[in-house]
Design goal:
CATH class: Alpha Beta
Radius of gyration: 17 Å
Number of helices: 8
Number of strands: 9
CATH topology: Carbamate kinase
CATH architecture: 3-Layer(aba) Sandwich
Number of domains: 1
Shape: globular
Helix content: 25-40%
Bound molecules: uridine-5'-diphosphate
Order of helices and strands: EHEHHEEHEHEEHHEHE
CATH superfamily: Acetylglutamate kinase-like
Length: about 240
């Protein structure tokens, strides 16, 4: 099978790694994701990954934690490196070659982020995981995903979620919500749909980087997305 996309950036939330836990990392989720990702590297797709940290730490809750926002954000970025290391271990166990690059230097566990090196790894068939978000507080891992996708010239950003696309309303709260197959960037804005935060979304729009929102927890879905099948919602 010839994939539709040859280089993709997969954005996974930290929370997706929790599985049915309410904190941390569920080993079966790591194993499942590694299997799904391996399936697309096996058909020659170059894969870069940005993973969130919300299963471990989120920086925004200054009122709750008493930790000022910027400090909390750095803690959140470190959490993404922990998730990146976990995913790296799972992928390597599944037989996939990987490199972890961090936007915050920590050379004992990750390469520093170097754009040209990341591209070279991808060309050699290694999965590149980008840790520590953008390296800056007041940003999100969605923004890191958009930024890295543009930098490495990915064909598309694949946002793996628990729902199978973008709906007219939150399908977990509103039973009448219906799913869109595709949308334009301006549709998303005029309908006030939540796809990514505005910074992340605007980066994609300004650089004509398509976004596909899909259900990462459905086995085979990731492979179907890169094959060009009608899975999830395409924003372009
Ligand atoms: N974060 C940050 N800068 C970045 C990326 C992330 O400050 O470029 C921090 C921020 O505090 C965020 C946390 O890291 O809350 C974890 O990332 P995020 O909430 O985006 O993870 P997800 O919701 O995808 O699990």
């Amino acid at each position: 099978m010839l994939p539709k996309y040859s280089r993709v950036l997969l954005k996974l939330s930290g929370e997706s790694l929790m599985g049915d836990r309410n904190f941390g990392i569920a080993p079966q989720m790591l194993e499942q994701y590694a299997k799904e990702i391996k399936a697309i590297t096996d058909i020659g797709v170059q894969v870069a990954i940005v993973i969130g940290g919300g299963n471990i730490y989120r920086g925004m809750n200054e009122a709750e934690t008493g930790i000022e926002r910027a400090q909390g954000d750095y803690m959140g970025m470190l959490a993404t490196v922990i998730n990146g290391m976990a995913l790296q271990a799972a992928l390597e166990k599944a037989g996939v070659n990987t490199r972890l690059q961090s936007a915050i230097k920590m050379e004992q566990v990750a390469e520093p982020y170097i754009r040209r090196k990341a591209i070279r790894h991808l060309e050699k068939g290694r999965v590149v995981i980008f840790g520590a978000g953008t390296g800056n507080p007041y940003f999100t891992t969605d923004t890191a995903g958009s930024l890295r996708a543009i930098e490495i010239d990915a064909d598309v950003i694949l946002k793996g979620t628990r729902v199978d696309g973008i709906y007219t309303a939150d399908p977990e709260k509103d039973a009448t919500a219906t799913r869109f197959d595709s949308l334009s960037f301006s549709d998303v804005i005029s309908r006030n749909l939540k796809v990514m935060d505005m910074t992340a979304f605007t980066l994609c729009q300004e650089n004509q980087l398509p976004i596909i929102v899909f259900d990462m927890n459905r086995p085979g879905n990731l492979r179907d997305v890169v094959a060009g099948k009608k899975v999830g919602t395409l924003v372009s």
